[in-house]
Design brief:
This protein has about 350 residues and is α/β, with parallel strands linked by helices. The chain has helices spanning about 30-40, 45-65, 70-85, 90-105, 110-140, 165-175, 190-205, 215-220, 245-255, 290, and strands at about 5, 10-15, 25-30, 150, 180-185, 210, 225-230, 235, 240-245, 260-265, 270, 290-295, 295, 310-315, 320-325, 325-330. The chain has ten helices and 16 strands. α1 (about 30-40) runs parallel beside α3 and α2 (about 45-65) runs antiparallel to α3 (about 70-85). It starts with a strand and ends in an 11-residue tail after the last strand. Bound molecules: 5-S-methyl-1-O-phosphono-5-thio-D-ribulose. The site of 5-S-methyl-1-O-phosphono-5-thio-D-ribulose (MRU) has 18 residues, from α2 and β9.
Amino acid sequence: MRTIELRGNEVVLIDQTQLPQRLVRVRCRSAEEVAVAIEEMKIRGAPALAAAAAMALAVTALRSRARTRGELLRELERAGRRIGRTRPTAVNLFVGLERALRAARSAADVEGIRKAVVSEAEAIAEEDVAVNRKIGENGAVLLEDGDLVLTHCNAGSLATVDYGTALGVIRAAWSAGRKIEVIATETRPLLQGARLTAWELSRDGIPVTVVTDGTVGYLMAQGKVDKVVVGADRIAANGDAANKIGTYSIAVLAKEHGIPFYIAAPTSTVDLKLRTGAEIPIEERRPEEVIFFRGVRVVPKGVKVFNPAFDVTPARFITAFITERGVVRPGELAKIFKG
Ligand code: MRU
């Protein structure tokens, strides 16, 4: 099941706001439509955003009426700036944009640019699936029979083009015959864990229990979590990692209880330009996401709300990163980029 695809001159994506009630796809015909889909969280998750960004440029190139190379490049740059303003934290979105723009600039004429951007967008999507499979293979050995594995938010098929990162590790361990069970935190305010992770895993027949975000400490104190595996939106050079709000609390709790805390992510999520997590831009989303719960006001009028979408887990709380290039401790991150 592909989360996002380029079909002709349209980007077709699963509308994740409709899950788990309805599995519906929406068609985006312009970078603007892709940008709105990203802002509305119809498509989300760091690796999926890389594909969405590149495909938005592919659709722009395919539909453009530009007659010269320069005109088309300017149009693509404009579309890129629009996509770049949607969500700031996941570095993958900017990697996807940069790759598509670089492909465009390497072409000699309008037709060449169209072909180059389309083939780069398709390559990003294909690579993502292959990388996730490899992450799964590398991480599966860390999970043992009988493990209760906690995950936060959705780092599954829906957060990528297919298969997932954290859920890729869980899927690979399950396929290898390991009898594991998953605990999915519901992930307030948008419920990616309850709506998306639980949906994906139950479709695959992998046992999953949803808990409220506040239940994690209680479960760990009861000995009911053996490992934590989550995804990441941006990892700084020193191993500090941004992921869905609440991840930091889970990591601190895991350390207190001696539970391994793993981050499964492609190496493209590592932003070597940033020395520490303090430099990672953290998206703040609309207060209405917290004020209203499925249309019902749950916060009194006039009360202030703070709604950051991500937090940063310092490297010292991370046992290891599970990447397509292997499993590495935070201090060894730079090593996998050499050679
Ligand atoms: O706000 P979201 O739903 O885009 O946040 C997603 C996450 O935090 C994921 O854990 C992360 O992108 C990794 S996805 C493989």
